[in-house]
Amino acid sequence: MTRFLFVFVLGAASCFGQPFSAGIKVGMPLSDLVNAGTSGNFNFSAQTNRYIFGGTAELRLPFGLGVEVDALYRHLSYTGSGSIVGLTTTTQSISTTSNAWEFPILAKYRFSKEGPLRPYVSGGLAWNTLQGLKQVVTTGNLATGTNTTASTSSPAELNHSTTRGIVLGAGVDIHALVIHIVPELRYTRWGAQNILDANGGIHSNQNQAEFLVGFTF
């Protein structure tokens, strides 16, 4: 089915002579990537980096239609610390980082046929993936005063390294000379959580909102 749609889009573009545009997309998240809290004696803290950037490309079809593909980057980062009481009391701290990539494929419809301002709506699917995930775990023994450090690419709270979601968006295509400036509000509902602590200490946000601006030629 995906192959058929790809061939159909290319065929329609060649028949009607519709343009292809590409450029960059930048923006900021309007929601946190992960939500952090307390899990027993363990406290999590998440840092949301207020930037999104990547590439974008669009194939413009007849009747105000278009197909857009993006590759967007965000940075995932969270920490945690707590104590474990047993035969000996130990402390543990973690520091987790990862590259978070998102790949939306969107169908677009522009309401106006001409003019420098063309409002539009979009919708489609998106896939995300965590790349370069690394967690550093430092364990301290209070009785001996010693610390040990280890790292892993598969922390216990990793639920899915790749997930899929549904995307809805709305914006305005501003045509200024040879460049298109495209501000947009976008909402994504992810079908599963990348990060999920069994005790509820930290989890990915399945509802994602963001403000994006595209610059295409």
Q: What does this protein look like?
A:
By secondary structure, this protein is mainly beta. The chain has one domain (16-216): Porin (Beta Barrel), CATH 2.40.160. It contains 1 helix and 13 strands. An 8-stranded antiparallel barrel has the order 1-5-6-7-8-10-11-13. Strands 2-12 form a two-stranded antiparallel sheet. A hairpin with a 2-residue loop joins β10 and β11 (179-190). The longest helix is centred in the first third of the chain and has 15 residues, at 2-16. The chain is elongated, with a radius of gyration of 22 Å. The two termini are 30 Å apart. Residues 4-17 have low confidence and may be disordered.
Radius of gyration: 22 Å
- What's the level 1 CATH class? Mainly Beta
Extract low-pLDDT stretches. 4-17
- Helix-strand pattern: HEEEEEEEEEEEEE
Q: Estimate the strand proportion.
A: over 45%
Q: What distance separates the N and C termini?
A: 30 Å
Number of alpha- plus pi-helical segments: 1
Mean pLDDT: 90
Strand order in the sheet with the most strands: 1-5-6-7-8-10-11-13
CATH architecture heading: Beta Barrel
Q: What best-fitting shape do the alpha-carbon axes yield?
A: elongated
Domain module tally = 1
Largest sheet: 8 strands, antiparallel, barrel
Classification by helices and strands:
mainly beta
Q: What is the percent of helical residues?
A: under 10%
> CATH fold name, please?
Porin
Number of strands: 13
